[in-house]
Amino acid sequence: MLGTIASIPKAWPELMKAPPGDGRPIMLLPGLINSDRSNIVMKRYLTALGYRVEGWKLGRNAGARTIGEGEKLLARLRQYHADAGEPVTLIGVSLGGIIARFAAHREPDLVREVITVSSPFAGDPRATNVWRVFEWLSGEKIDSPGVIARREEIAAALPVPATAIWSASDGLVNGAICHDEHARSIEVVSSHMGVQMHPATLRAIAEVLGGN
Asked: How is residue 94 annotated by DSSP?
């Protein structure tokens, strides 16, 4: 991850050649255990391009222990939508991407599109190396009826445009369950740690935003 951070200054001039932003509102959702600080590079980059970018402002992502049944997240989304006056683009990293898909299913009129980054939404969570950590932090069992129902909802085709950015060399998450036929698929070469600040990931996100 330190190597990724160190590569950003050198890559910055090329990154800034991406399509300019149009001021649309974007909400960034962090991965498991992480807070908005983990997305600071992405936030600065997309802000520099000309987008209106905010974090989710819900603290560290511990799954259900952070968002409950989703009411805290959806309340945050409704408030940002009301403030911006237009649908919000959701960009989620790992578990944050799964939660972004959940929000888009529940409040599709408030969401412009969803971009997931290394988010294992399309298969058995045991294909990751962190599912036991998820259970411990969230207090939920991945085989419980409620979690299974939510997983099925999240994996269903979204009612808004969707893009899945993933890596075959992820290391923590099986890239094969980070994309499906219902979402635009973009492969990058990156490990899971720090993928949200990898220049290839940042440029891919900027190109997706610039094309919509």
From this structure: T
